[in-house]
Amino acid sequence: MENLNHLQEDLNATASREEAQSTEEEAQEESPKKVRLKKCPRCGKKQGLENFAKHDTSSDGYQSYCKQCKSNMHKRKRKKNITFRIKHHFATRIKDQLGNACPQHLSRDLEEYLGYRISKLRSHLGEELQLREGITVREAFERGYHIDHVRPLSSFHCAEVDSEAGLELFRECWAITNLVLISAEENLAKGAKYSGSEETSREAVRI
Ligand SMILES: [Zn+2]
After folding, report:
1. Is the model's pTM score more than 0.85?
2. How far is residue 59's CA from residue 77's CA, in Å, rounded to a whole number?
3. What is the distance in A from the centroid of ligand 1 to the CA of 136?
4. What is the distance between the alpha carbons of residues 117 and 56, in angstroms, rounded to a whole number?
5. pLDDT digits (tens, 9 = 90+) for 102-148
6. Ion ligand 1 — residues with CB under 5 Å?
7. Which domains does the chain have, with CATH numbers?
């Protein structure tokens, strides 16, 4: 036992020499034998410091997540942002549309009311846009495109979503096949074309 304790002390001494640049706190977190490796809490892999981006204010001078994880997180966030924007935009417009009859937890239960996932709508819009104009949904949003109803929202007269008939009409209005991404110019032109319906031109709102 005595020998083992000595061995452990030796190992600890080696470790603290190698760990000279890091703080004490981190030395405790890291395995003493692998001080040159840093564990990424996201993927769980222990990797060399070259796999971590530098970070001035962190205690060890490196970011906590590895470069690969950081890159994946950014990609996912960018993707998520568009879905989030569509959701937010829909919720706002549906609140306008239904007024007092709007369900209390509309934002939370949005996909349930719509009957589809926003990510599915996004794919559909993307495919259609790619064929029509050769651009992605992200590019369309960056150019200020609008989500428009093929058959105008105002023509549906949705009053509520609590009854079966009400929900059916609402779903028809917000059906994936009734939605399209168009440029602001196209939207204005469409509004002019249906000059009888002033609402049409106001309908598609930039998101
Ligand atoms: Zn990682």
Report:
1. no
2. 26
3. 29
4. 41
5. 999 998 899 999 999 999 999 999 999 999 999 999 899 888 898 99
6. 40, 42-43, 66, 69
7. 35-80 (3.30.60), 82-206 (no CATH)
